Amino acid sequence: MTRGQTRNNQHKSKAKLSQTPQKDIKQDGIDVEFSEETADLEDKESQQRSRAADQRAQQHDHS
């Protein structure tokens, strides 16, 4: 027998990991929690860059 064909591997479960149901997935495009109270200067600059990039993407889509 070659590697992977031994009888020892037969007891392993072939079950896949469970997936999140589609109804529980938020579709807003934002996947990071953010707290204004705990934000530092870098967080706020990052948000500004993100908003600017979103605006550029929307302008690109409409042109």
UniProtKB/TrEMBL annotation:
<feature type="region of interest" description="Disordered">
    <location>
        <begin position="1"/>
        <end position="63"/>
    </location>
</feature>
<protein>
    <submittedName>
        <fullName>YfhD family protein</fullName>
    </submittedName>
</protein>
<dbReference type="Pfam" id="PF14151">
    <property type="entry name" value="YfhD"/>
</dbReference>
<feature type="compositionally biased region" description="Basic and acidic residues">
    <location>
        <begin position="44"/>
        <end position="63"/>
    </location>
</feature>
<feature type="compositionally biased region" description="Acidic residues">
    <location>
        <begin position="30"/>
        <end position="43"/>
    </location>
</feature>
<dbReference type="InterPro" id="IPR025435">
    <property type="entry name" value="YfhD-like"/>
</dbReference>
